[in-house]
Amino acid sequence: MSAPFEELLPGTARALYHRIAVAQAKGRAPSLVAAVARDGGTVWTGARSCVEGEVPTADTQYRIGSLTKVFTAVLVLRLRDEGLLDLGDRLETHLPGTGVGGVTIAQLLSHSAGLAAEAPGPWWERTPGELRPGLPDVLGEKPVLHPAGRLHHYSNPGYTLLGSLVEKLRGESWEAALRREVLEPLGLARTTVRPEAPHAGGWAVHPWADVLLPEPAEDLGLMGPAGVLWSTAGDLARFAVFLTRGDERVLRRESVEEMRVPAVPPGSGGWDAGYGLGVQLLRAEGRALFGHTGSLPGFLATLWIDAEEDVAGMVLANTTSGPAVPAVAADLVAIVAEREPRIPEPWRPLPAADPAVLELTGPWYWGPTPFALRLGAGRGLELTALAGGGRTSRFRAEPDGTWTGLDGYYLGETLRAVRTPDGRVSHLDLGSFVFTREPYDPSAPVPGGVDPQGWRPLP
């Protein structure tokens, strides 16, 4: 089970199919299609339909609604990685004249800018984009409802602003930038702004009778970056692999990992739900998931990823309401992770080890608290607490001989080995904290000094 793209066990596949069959039947969805990705590829797809002989496949397009926001966020982070903007920049710096330019790009990405949830005027999801020809029509007279940066308040107009920001800095339409910078490099040929056959039609199911009403599929105009895209289970599986591992042609791994760092305190979902930079965060039965939900009239969509297990589940349905698609996608992940837990890569020795770095490995003490420093690939280091719930972090080697924290408490902090004039390692300096080879080593410059009488029993 360590080989990529290996098929799931028959019992696992049947459990997955049973889950979507129950969802389609009880949720009264005209059709529902799902997929699971693991270890870098699609390992299972399944579908159900109420029409005999018209079962969708992993290549059938559905509208994915707010899953579009993840694609928009990727475009914005590309601009950041290229140095064209900083996430702390005010919107006004790059897109003047909006009237809400004091909010930052990071706040827009994380829905913490305090903007209204919806555009004013007619229900924008069911009306033509021509009714909103400019940003004033999207923002309205009172676009700001809450203080910026204080809380999570989901905002569709906020992602319209991010789409306009992409257009301003790229000098082309959001759609063109998305196709050139994300869809084509990742091979997402079936993810489009307008539906392309084969695609599902959108339906509303009567709440008290088993009858259907077709839903309109409008071009959303300026609101497109918030929810316009059509996609397939197959394309979303490939996109999930990218969001887990990164792709140097689009975004490096560190940037996609940054997307799933909680940006603000959670909203009404409580501490089991949150939002990063363009992705929703969810803790379900102790499992940390990230991805996004989506809905537009006639369609429901969800993509959840468990990065630790390297498993993603995605579900698409062509109904305005009915099946609990987010719960179904989470269940698909859980079924695979529990029945077929991830097989770790085989241990392999490092091809080489720098003696000066190898010298730093082993036990260190922050005061009396024991830690271990281990050497990883590329001269990277990992600091692990050996007692209690101490702080653990990974570190990336820098050209100047220091290391930068990649996660945990020491994210972004600098670790350096301090040596004596004769080249001996005196201590480690980590964000001003001194780590010594012995608890409160008297030969090291411990701030506050070490009592000259040393360790002794309680008098």
TrEMBL record:
Residues 354-437 form the DUF7586 domain. Residues 23-337 form the Beta-lactamase-related domain. SUPFAM superfamilies: beta-lactamase/transpeptidase-like. InterPro entries: AmpC-like (IPR050491), Beta-lactam-related (IPR001466), Beta-lactam/transpept-like (IPR012338), DUF7586 (IPR056008). It holds the Pfam family DUF7586. PANTHER family: D-ALANYL-D-ALANINE CARBOXYPEPTIDASE, D-ALANYL-D-ALANINE-CARBOXYPEPTIDASE/ENDOPEPTIDASE AMPH. This is Beta-lactamase family protein. It comes from Streptomyces lycii. The lineage of its organism: Bacteria, Bacillati, Actinomycetota, Actinomycetes, Kitasatosporales.
